[in-house]
Design goal:
Layout (H helix, E strand, L loop, with lengths): L2 E7 L3 E8 L2 E9 L9 E10 L4 E5 L6 E4 L7 H12 L23 H4 L5 E8 L8 E3 L4 E2 L3 E5 L4 E3 L6 H15 L4 E5 L1 H9 L1
Keywords: Hydrolase, Magnesium, Metal-binding, RNA-binding
GO molecular function: hydrolase activity; metal ion binding; RNA binding; RNA nuclease activity
Pfam families: RNase_E_G
Length: 201
Amino acid sequence: MDKELIIRSSSEHVDFALLKDGKLIELQKDEDGNNFSVGDVFIAKIRKTVPGLNASFVNVGYEKDAFLHYHDLGPKLPSLLKFTKRVSTGKLKDFSLKNFPFEKDIDKDGKIVDALKSNQSLLVQIVKEPISTKGPRISSELSIAGRYIVLVPFSNRISISQKIEDREEKDRLKRLVKSITSGFRYYCSYSSTRQKSSRTG
């Protein structure tokens, strides 16, 4: 198996291409000067809530406030707020979620004014990059994607990609993830790419 990484750089962006046996398997582009890319995670501060929009405007360090809608808060918001506050104040030294006491989930059809207050600190993730006069769109339901797995903090569910149709393979992957993540609070999702990789060795 022959792998090759090709990098092409210009004044505006950098392209990364990963080839396997001469075939393109991954392509990424990094825009020069773009500090707010999709997937980036920030500690942000709530600037103001707008009941009419059921959303908040949030300071993430960009020239324009980011937009956070209630439906992008995620059910685990109270636990995330508690975790962020304890870490930022130094009260929580162990960043593991194994023994972290979780709060009750928020109502999926609730109101932003009941969930967030001005000047609260919150971990957020960019879901849409800033364009024109608009700041980035963000979510507080974090997900960390790797090549074969997606981790979602504050959840302990395990799911396998629907593209993996083999029942035995699905069960095997679930057992594997459980053996690795037992006692941890992460939602794990395995992709079909992982299945292909495991079968080809």
